[in-house]
Amino acid sequence: MTVIDSTPQQRRGSVGRRLGGRSLNEIGLLAAIVVLYIVLGSTAAGFLSLDNQLGMLRDAATVGIAAWGVTLVIIAGEIDISIGPAVAFSSVLVAKAATEWGLGIGPAVLVTLVAGIAWGALAGWLRARFDVPSFIATLGVWSALGGLGLYLTDALPVVLPDSGFFTVLGGTVLGIPTPAIVMVVLFFVFAYVARYTAYGRSVYAVGGNAPAARMAGVNLAKIRILLFATTGLLSAITGVLLAARLGSGNGGAASGLEFDVIAAVVIGGTALAGGRGSMLGTLLGVVFITVISNGLVLLGVNSFLQNVVRGVIIVVAVLVNVIITKRARATRES
To answer: pTM for the whole thing?
Structure first.
């Protein structure tokens, strides 16, 4: 069989077409963030202060840590809407285990992380084994964990025990919020996995064309279970960090977090249809969502109207995403 190699010019053109839409989205997001900083810096009192910027880093970590896993899920053509209740239940679980159940700090954290992997893997198994749509599988997890978190606590906070470990998790390291450090470390881990590993390439292949990926030898069931187990683990990590920050576990915490996470991923350029996306884009999406939320609070916008603004942003982001996807497809076909 004769293998026809492409010329360097053809390869460069192919790469350019493949990256053009993504790069355009990331450049546009970066420009939007710069504009937001200029506008909010001149109109919102205290926006540029060090304390506010550090607070924004903490808020960004709450969204960002889970967003790395959700990026891979959406690239694979799936969705995970269980993040908010999973984070809240994780905060309750670690607090309960460390206090009322008498497990101690280390085992309580370990149990919480293992439980996160378990409920994520369960959603992935339902998707892989019974072909249950991921929206429905994670909706079930969303409902179950949300109810359990409130049931176990009677909707009351569970105070964490005094611990230097939780103090560090909820505090700072060299002046930088610990959750932000965790977020950045995990960003580089997931960026490497997505770009340079066989697993990452398989995720893109599944999202691009699942039947073709199966014929190429990709184990779809394994990929899907791993994807949702990962988001479960990241939700548990976020829950532990949130509990340390608040000093308690709370079944009502992180309400609506899943929508901020999905919005950040979509705004970052990840295609809802699957097969396209990047961790850098999601990082910019996380920053964009965090800056918007912080600015609305500092400007004194009514909390209900803040939800309206977030909803408009999500819709606009989806429209832009669809337009970029169609243009990229048209460019490849031309």
So the answer is: 0.91
